[in-house]
């Protein structure tokens, strides 16, 4: 076993590699982020990693040793090879961690936390030790061996050879005056998850694969009999972080979540299967190569606090299907919104990409005899919780559909989307978070009926029309696939909806159905302030009092022709 200890009387055996704690790390003064919370000046860490081997009958310690430098360490992952050698990974902030000759990384990272790897002989002597993770903040959090003894490590890094991800910043662990007990390391770094495969004889790097971009980290790893590595970990820990590259997705089963699970090809070059999950703590592989992930899931209830439920997932090693679906996208990506795509709302327009979805040639929307947009098109049906979605177009690699008004209850948190063809083949089902609404602006048109642009600006004081969708169910209730025949007021079962121009509330002269358009499309007729100089402005459609709780933004050009 391995872990973290700061007890001077931790049980250490005779002849241990490191018999005593090494505590000579300078105290730092942490920044005061909240004057109401008393923050101590403290060491980065006051303990060391330990490695302990217990006899098979659990009656004695074969060996037990501290492992670290003069600052602090924490062991996070451990395995043993067929010869009884223990291989340990963890984190350190000691510049003098006891690396050995021939280490693949002899210097630690330049910030507070760096990964390490160490190998101990069957009786506990240190035979190899190295920093691991690159020149910036990094962790080494889990380790696994394949049948040939090759070593696989996962964690997070800013980049092994050069810094490529995130920002190389200090990682602080803050604790208040009410909890003065150190609890080890914070494991938050603004880097990418990684898998590195090492040769156990030469310690040469066989491959290095990054997964995700910033605020991603591998927490657990397992390897199947073919050498394919499965990892799980965290990603995008804050939805408020901007400029985060989308997490990679290959026929996932879930579109959003704070964690991920991924499968790598045996040569490490390809991500065979990454998907978001709610939370992932450990992964294991059975004899057939199927993966089992244990973690937790949250279900939000508007009237109650969050509940946390344990979750066990089984992911089949190989799933063959004639059709696959990738992570759904909004029809028009939102510009400047406070939140990235991650939820669906009743009435939202969505794009599904994938393979084998429909005929090669695009099939456009069709109306049924009842005058509604058809839910089967080109032999394809898309359902949300078994409710068929109106289809606007389908072709082999792309489907445009409308999320049904009856999509899952936002208080339960999710909806299951499924694509089926005429032959009965089904694509991978994807679990989607459900929101009351996800505002999306589709177009902005001037009073002359032409699209607004820098070449065709709106005159000050004129009326413009904004078309938007994703506002959820209406009162009276909307009907899936219905086309609005004439103007009419609609009352929304949501918070206040508004429009701002240049962050100033705009006067709305009409808010309701868009004649001749799908009933899910809402029309806003808005007056351009007469005093605005000729320039390009941001027009925002959102809900809640401005500044909006959530919004979608479009460029508005104002001027004279």
Q: How would you characterize this protein structure?
A:
With 561 residues, the chain is an all-beta fold. The relative contact order is 0.07. The strands form ten sheets. Strands 19, 20, 22, 23, 27 and 28 form a six-stranded antiparallel beta sheet that branches. The chain is elongated, with a radius of gyration of 28 Å. The chain has strands spanning 2-5, 48-54, 61-67, 73-80, 86-92, 114-120, 126-132, 138-145, 151-157, 192-198, 205-211, 216-223, 229-235, 259-264, 271-277, 280-285, 291-299, 307-315, 324-325, 329-330, 343-344, 349-355, 363-364, 376-377, 380-384, 387-388, 391-395, 398-402, 414-421, 430-434, 440-445, 463-469, 474-475, 491-492, 497-501, 504-505, 507-513, 522-527, 535-543, 550-558. Residues 32-43, 168-182, 237-243 and 300-305 have low confidence and may be disordered.
Please report which band the strand proportion falls in: under 5%, 5-15%, 15-25%, 25-35%, 35-45% or over 45%: 35-45%
Question: For the record, what CATH class of the largest domain applies?
Answer: Mainly Beta
Radius of gyration: 28 Å
CATH architecture name of the largest domain: 6 Propeller
The end-to-end span amounts to 75 Å
Query: What is the β-strand count?
Result: 40
- Amount of helix: under 10%
**Number of contiguous helices:** 0
Count of spatially separate domains? 3
**Shape label:** elongated
**Named CATH topology of the largest domain:** Neuraminidase
Instruction: Name the poorly predicted regions.
Output: 32-43, 168-182, 237-243, 300-305
Mean pLDDT: 85
């Amino acid at each position: 076993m391995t872990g973290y200890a700061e007890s001077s009387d931790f049980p250490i055996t005779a002849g241990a590699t490191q018999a005593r704690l090494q505590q000579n790390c300078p105290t730092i003064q942490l920044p005061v982020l909240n004057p109401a919370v008393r923050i101590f000046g403290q060491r980065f860490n006051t303990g060391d990693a330990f490695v302990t081997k217990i006899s098979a009958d659990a009656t004695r310690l074969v060996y037990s040793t501290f492992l670290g430098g003069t600052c602090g360490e924490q062991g996070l992952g451990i395995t043993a090879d067929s010869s009884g050698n223990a291989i340990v990974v963890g984190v350190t902030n000691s510049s003098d961690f006891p690396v050995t000759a021939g280490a693949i990384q002899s210097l630690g990272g330049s910030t507070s936390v760096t990964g390490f790897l160490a190998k101990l002989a069957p009786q506990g002597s240190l035979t190899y030790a190295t920093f691991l993770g690159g020149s910036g903040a990094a962790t080494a959090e889990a380790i696994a061996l394949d049948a040939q003894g090759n070593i696989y490590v996962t964690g997070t890094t800013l980049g092994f050879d050069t810094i490529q991800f995130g920002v190389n910043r200090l990682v602080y662990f803050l604790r208040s005056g009410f909890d003065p007990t150190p609890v080890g390391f914070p494991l938050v770094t603004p880097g990418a998850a990684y898998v590195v495969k090492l040769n156990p004889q030469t310690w040469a790097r066989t491959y290095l694969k990054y997964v995700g971009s910033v605020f991603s980290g591998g927490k657990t790893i397992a390897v199947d009999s073919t050498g394919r590595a499965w990892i799980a970990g965290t990603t995008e820990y804050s939805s408020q972080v901007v400029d985060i590259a989308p997490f990679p997705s290959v026929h996932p089963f879930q579109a959003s979540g704070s964690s991920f699970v991924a499968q790598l090809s045996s040569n490490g070059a390809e991500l065979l299967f990454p998907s978001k999950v709610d939370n992932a703590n450990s992964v294991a592989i059975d004899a057939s190569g199927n993966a089992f992930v244990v973690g937790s899931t949250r279900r939000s209830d508007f009237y109650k606090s969050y509940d946390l439920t344990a979750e066990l997932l089984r992911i089949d090693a190989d799933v063959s299907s004639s059709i696959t679906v990738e992570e759904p996208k909004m029809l028009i990506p939102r510009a400047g919104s406070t939140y990235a795509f991650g939820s669906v709302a009743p009435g939202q327009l969505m794009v599904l990409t994938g393979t084998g979805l429909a005929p090669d040639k695009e099939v456009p929307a069709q109306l049924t005899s009842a005058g509604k947009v058809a839910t089967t098109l080109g032999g394809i049906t898309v359902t949300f919780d078994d409710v068929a979605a109106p289809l606007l177009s389908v072709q082999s690699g792309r489907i445009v559909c409308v999320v049904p008004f009856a999509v899952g209850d936002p208080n339960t948190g999710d909806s299951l989307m499924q694509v089926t063809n005429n032959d009965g083949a089904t694509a991978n089902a994807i679990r989607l978070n459900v929101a009351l609404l996800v505002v999306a602006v589709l177009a902005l048109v001037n009073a002359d009926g032409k699209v607004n642009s820098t070449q065709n600006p709106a005159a000050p004081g004129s009326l413009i029309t904004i078309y938007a969708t994703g506002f959820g169910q209406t009162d009276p209730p909307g009907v899936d696939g219905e086309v609005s025949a004439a103007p009419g007021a609609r009352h929304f079962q949501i918070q206040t909806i508004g429009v701002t121009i240049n962050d100033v509330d705009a006067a709305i002269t009409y808010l309701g159905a868009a004649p001749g358009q799908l009933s899910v499309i809402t029309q806003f007729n808005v007056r351009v302030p007469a005093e605005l100089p000729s320039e390009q402005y941001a027009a925002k459609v959102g809900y809640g009092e401005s500044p909006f709780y959530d919004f979608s933004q479009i460029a508005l050009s104002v001027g004279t022709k």
